[in-house]
Amino acid sequence: MQPSLDTAPALLPILDELKQREPIFHRAEFGTTRQQFEAMTEADFWEVGASGQRYSRDYVLDVLEQRFQHPAEDVWETSEFHCRQIAADNYLLTYTLKQGARVTRRATLWRHTAEGWKIVYHQGTVVAAA
């Protein structure tokens, strides 16, 4: 039933780079300000949250701006990373995120640009209890 999630050997360096950036918007070394979050997302970025709601880039940036004005402890654990190239300079990174009792499967579409890595799309899906 489970898919094979082995990353191709040629993509392992990219997998290592992208793992360091996930979960997105939770790594202070990559940004804590709206300007930094704008720089790491494509202009047409959007996401689907674990609730199933779609969120625009502007909405996500507004939420992040508020979150980082009042930072709180953020305990999480990532695992099961997989990277697949889907087009030239475009990569799908999937992984599992555990935040307390909540477990989600995450998917981020990354684009490598002249300015560095940019997030094109992100989705989180809650894992149902077995």
From TrEMBL:
<protein>
    <submittedName>
        <fullName>DUF4440 domain-containing protein</fullName>
    </submittedName>
</protein>
<dbReference type="InterPro" id="IPR032710">
    <property type="entry name" value="NTF2-like_dom_sf"/>
</dbReference>
